Amino acid sequence: MAYHKSNQTRIIFSITILVFFSMILITVNAKGKRNPNFVERMVSSLIFPFQKVATGSLSVLGDLRNKYFYPVGMKEENEILKSEMANIEGLESKLIELQLENKRLRSLLEYKENSPYKMAMAQVVGYDSTNWNQMVTIDKGSSDGIKRKMPVVANGALVGKIESVFSKSSKVLLMIDIRNAVDAMIQESRAKGVVAGTNGELCDMKYVSLEENVEKGFNVISSGLGTVYPKGLLIGVVEEVIKKEFGLFQVVSIKPSVDLDHLEEVMVILE
């Protein structure tokens, strides 16, 4: 083992000496601008294989650098650029949402300022819409002065009423819920009736006499006859009118003025 190590050391030392003297001879030759002599040619022929190996190794390393390390750097740069683009797109999306929210809140505040009622603004934080229930949850409760049966509006039109109250939240029974009913009248003809939920997209206006003038497109508002809803709240628009040959009342379908499937902010009428 020691012999082999000693042998390897001698070989490495000899190659080093040859390369060293070769470099000296080449340098002298270059400075003197003369043809190499016999000794120089001999040294050059001895070290040529080693120079070739060294040159080849450097060439391989250069190829590896160009083919691997540079693309890796470019890949990392591309990933950084993609991440920055995603951040920009995220910021743009947030900006759009803020603009839309600002528009909605301005509309609600304008309605609040022009309304004779005392109101509290609330965010819709949950939906509970099934075949049996049409309700939403808001982020205001008893600690904010919310009580059962208080009317809830959005964009100047009726949404429903407070059904149950907790400390920090409340459940709103939407006007399309089959359990909800509002004393109402046709704004144009003053015909009276009761708007009841159907658990569907439309409501029914019941008990409208056959003799009353009701047409598609007429507005329906709260009549103020009950104890829950004040007079004049917009409920919806007449969608369809059916006058049966037999019976005492017309069949009137009402389309709510508020998009109840996309509620985000509402106003609770406190007084």
- CA distance, first residue to last residue: 102 Å
CATH superfamily of the domain at 181-258: Rod shape-determining protein MreC, domain 2
Strand order of the largest sheet: 1-2-5-4-3-12
Mean pLDDT: 79
Encode the helix/strand succession as letters: HHEEEEEEEEEEEE
Radius of gyration: 44 Å
The strand count comes to: 12
Helix/strand class = alpha+beta
Question: Could you name the CATH class of the domain at 181-258?
Answer: Mainly Beta
Number of helices: 2
CATH architecture descriptor name of the domain at 181-258: Beta Barrel
Shape: elongated
Strand percentage lies at 25-35%
Helix content range of the residues, please?
Answer: 25-40%
Largest sheet: 6 strands, antiparallel, barrel
Low-confidence stretches: none
CATH topology of the domain at 181-258: Thrombin, subunit H
Could you please describe the fold and organization of this structure?
The protein is α+β, with helices and mostly antiparallel strands and 271 residues long. Among the domains are: 2-66, no CATH class; 181-258, Thrombin, subunit H (Beta Barrel), CATH 2.40.10. Helix content is 40%, strand content 29%. It has helices at 2-32, 38-114, and strands spanning 119-129, 134-138, 151-154, 157-165, 170-174, 181-186, 192-197, 203-209, 219-222, 234-242, 249-256, 265-269. The strands form 2 sheets. The chain has a 6-stranded antiparallel barrel. α1 crosses α2. The longest helix is centred in the N-terminal third of the chain and has 77 residues, at 38-114. It is elongated, with a radius of gyration of 44 Å. The termini are far apart.
